[in-house]
Design a protein that fits this description.
elongated
């Protein structure tokens, strides 16, 4: 992990410790950092199919979903399209 990002995480933990005392503790476990980039859209049609026939982009891979519920709904939409249940 780049040092500047690690420094930011450490700074955040110490600032959070002011609000929730005990956060900056040797027993605190940091699971991971979630990063989202919304500007990487892939060209898809209304059924989330790419220019390559039968290649569908669903979930966060499409660059158009911005939540877990939207990402999962895109999978249901494509599955119904493929199954012909629209």
């Amino acid at each position: 992990m780049p040092k500047r990002i690690l420094d930011g995480i450490i700074e955040m933990i110490y600032k959070l410790d002011r609000i929730a005392p005990g956060t900056a503790n040797m027993d605190t476990l940091l699971y991971g950092v979630e990063v989202k980039f919304y500007n990487m859209e892939v060209s898809i049609d209304e059924n989330l199919e790419t220019l390559h026939k039968n290649l569908f982009i669903i979930g966060d891979c499409s660059g158009i979903t911005h939540s877990l519920s939207h990402a999962s709904a895109s999978g249901v939409h494509v599955a119904r399209h493929i199954a012909g249940i629209e």
